[in-house]
Specification:
The complex is a heterodimer of chains A (about 325) and B (about 325). Chain A is built from eleven helices and twelve strands. Chain A is an alpha/beta fold and about 325 residues long. Chain A has an eight-stranded mixed β-sheet, with helices on both faces. In chain A, strands 2-1-4-5 form a four-stranded antiparallel β-sheet, covered by helices on one side. Classes of the chains: A alpha/beta (about 325), B alpha/beta (about 325).
């Protein structure tokens, strides 16, 4: 299997009045073609910034992004336009990501028009209808406007727009978190079916751990711009090593009365990512933190095959 | 049931919104009973009528367009719907208070958090400003915010802290009923866990009854004694947590559980409920869920569906409920 996306030491700093905000701070990962990488973390941990960096909605401060072996970090102009055709994004909020003045067909057809994909009006109309059919939108909403539709249908428009140019890679930034559970399940099934039929590669950003486990092949857990643990999806839930991941998993309420809850309670909330001090970003909330954690930044190390953890004391804590 | 005192008793409540496009039947003939100190989870999707029910109890429905053609809401033996506005103002915040979904917009941005709590106390209790201030500090400490932050403004707090402030305001006058409308939806999981833990503890200490509105069955499993599942303005299944989680009967409840990705087991596909909730301006005849129901039969769309009582605590609005046993 070939690697489609590779990210090396990717950094994104934002300049804010108080200094530099380290949104993404030295991240490395790979995504194989046809696979899904789940990115989890709490709000403010940099997961959306990372997704936006990949599709060039933000410019990286340093580091490099490879798409199909080609360095795309510093592309611009026509080169960027042509690569964007292969990389699309589905946005979080189907209420604000669609132009309220455009009809469903205009919204879905917009990418086709921009990239001049269709030679005739008939072809354009046929293509839009085909896309609507793919994502399960009835033909009668062809001329409707977004405000006439519910959240689930709107998100289907978002999916159709992303699919319009036959991309190979889609960044899904919390595509289901604004939806009700029954609708959420419909969209998740749709995304998985599309992946199977079109061999799509996804980066799936979410804060919902049960969703991410369901849809991902590999998962990376982010905390304040750093990756703290990366592992194959199933392994992460059975062999959880990083103290933050443990806390995160134990915090999920489980809809079952008979599950024993051993909750690792975390004190406090995320610390500020502005001008961070050296040391582990999680140290302040970590129940196992020692002096070393406050002075030296831990690196990701391979604890088991393809399971990486960044913690100085991972072996002690888990008695490995 | 008899040994606990009934605090809130909703009988046959219907709420409609009269709009230009027709009458929206938001809540249809619901019955709900809350005992003292009990926690009830009100579960359902967007548009199921959960928030409308809560606003009806609070007397905060926007009138017009809202109308209540029939129904009674007994609180401590008195019908809230017959109370004049002046009395409702005393009950609201004093005896029944509500926590809103979004802590970011529920607080006044140009008032310090301390003053917002004091405001509540001064309105309801006859006490001096100094006394109110001392009490407000105590409450802040109780929800886990150091009292030194009394004179800070909401923007200086994080989301979790703001929600704690909102909870502090709601609990300031020691209400006997707390309505929490999706109190943790806007929060991250680790913070959600902290807030839920705290609410659970306070509820036990103060012996407050609670109606928890949510769509997260996980939270319900953790803190609710009883659960009511709402769909298209009706309570379609109601029972103790055990009844609903281990022994649910309604196909919609089953569908809700099938839609949640399971963390414990592996599954290849979710089994969502096909279709969408019916348009509340034109509800179908018979069972509202029939269109999406995998077990639907012709008789489901004929005539009103009666609620069947499956056990002392468990009721379900489905014609198949008893037959499937």
């Amino acid at each position: 299997m070939s690697t489609l996306i590779e990210v090396k030491d990717l950094k994104k700093y934002f300049t804010v009045p108080k200094g530099l905000l380290h949104a993404v701070d030295g991240v490395n990962f790979k995504i194989d073609e046809g696979k899904t990488l789940g990115v989890v973390g709490e709000s403010g941990c940099g997961k959306s910034t990372m997704g936006r960096l990949l599709v060039h909605l933000h410019e990286a401060t340093s580091g490099s992004i490879y798409f199909d072996g080609k360095d795309i970090t510093n592309l611009s102009g026509n080169e960027l336009k042509s690569i964007r055709k292969d990389m699309q994004m589905i946005f979080q909020d189907p209420y604000s990501s669609l132009n309220p003045r455009m009809s469903v067909s205009e919204l879905i057809g917009e990418p086709l028009r921009i990239y001049k994909m269709c030679s005739s009006k008939e072809e354009y109309r046929a293509r839009v209808k085909e896309l609507m059919d793919t994502v399960g939108l009835a033909e009668r909403v062809y001329d409707s406007y977004p405000h006439e539709l519910d959240g689930g249908r709107r998100q289907r428009i978002g999916v159709a727009r992303a699919l319009a140019l036959n991309p190979r890679f889609i960044v899904c930034d919390e595509p289901v978190s604004a939806l009700d559970v029954s609708i959420q399940a419909q969209i998740l099934n749709l995304l998985m079916d599309l992946q199977e039929s079109r061999n799509l590669t996804y980066m799936f950003i979410t804060h919902d751990l049960s969703v991410v486990k369901h849809i991902s092949d590999d998962i990376v857990v982010m905390y304040l711009g750093n990756l703290v643990e990366t592992a194959p999806a199933k392994r992460l839930f059975t062999n959880t090593y990083h103290p933050y991941t443990k806390a995160l998993l134990s915090a999920i309420p489980i809809p079952d009365l008979h599950v024993e809850h051993k909750r690792v309670e975390l004190k406090g909330e995320l610390t500020s990512p502005i001008n961070p001090k050296p040391g582990c970003r999680f140290a302040k909330r970590c129940p196992y933190a020692k002096d070393l954690c406050f002075s030296k930044t831990p690196e990701l190390e391979e604890v088991e095959s393809s399971h990486f953890v960044s913690c100085h004391y991972v072996r002690e804590i888990n008695s490995l | 049931m008899e040994d606990k005192k009934v605090l809130l008793d909703i009988r046959n409540l219907t709420v409609q919104y009269k709009t230009r496009k027709g009458t929206v039947e938001a809540v249809n003939n619901i019955d709900l009973c809350v005992n003292k100190g009990e926690t009830i989870g009100l579960v359902g999707e967007t548009g199921a009528g959960k928030t409308t029910t809560a606003l009806a109890i609070m007397g905060l429905l926007p009138v017009p367009p809202a109308v209540i053609p029939n129904g009674e809401i007994f609180f401590d033996g008195e019908d809230l719907l017959l109370k004049p506005e002046k009395e409702m103002r005393k009950i609201r915040g004093g005896k029944i208070s509500m926590i809103y979904q979004d802590p970011m917009t529920a607080l006044n941005p140009i008032m310090t958090v301390g003053d917002q709590i004091v405001e509540m106390i001064v309105l309801h209790d006859r006490c001096s400003a100094a006394e109110a201030q001392t009490k407000a500090c105590e409450i802040l400490e109780m929800v886990g915010i150091p009292a030194v932050r009394f004179s800070e403004y909401p923007h200086q707090f994080s989301g979790g802290m703001k929600q704690r402030v909102v909870i502090a305001i709601a609990l300031a006058c020691n209400p006997s009923l707390l309505i929490a409308d999706e109190p943790t939806t806007a929060l991250d999981v680790t913070v959600q866990a902290q807030v839920m833990e705290m609410m659970n503890k306070l509820k036990r200490e103060l012996d407050t009854a609670m109606i928890l509105i949510t769509h997260d069955l996980g939270i319900v499993a953790e803190i609710c004694d009883k659960v009511a599942i709402m769909y298209a303005g009706e309570i379609i299944e109601y029972g103790t947590a055990e009844d609903i989680f281990d022994n649910h009967r309604h196909p919609y409840t089953e569908g809700l559980f099938g839609s949640i990705p399971n963390l414990e087991e592996d599954q290849d596909r979710l089994s969502p409920i096909p279709g969408l909730m019916p348009d509340p301006t034109t509800l179908p005849e018979g069972c509202n869920f029939a269109e999406r129901c995998p077990y639907a039969k012709p008789e489901c769309s004929r005539g009103a569906v009666m609620t069947s009582r499956l056990s002392k605590t468990h009721v379900c609005r489905c014609i198949m409920a008893e037959k499937e046993v």
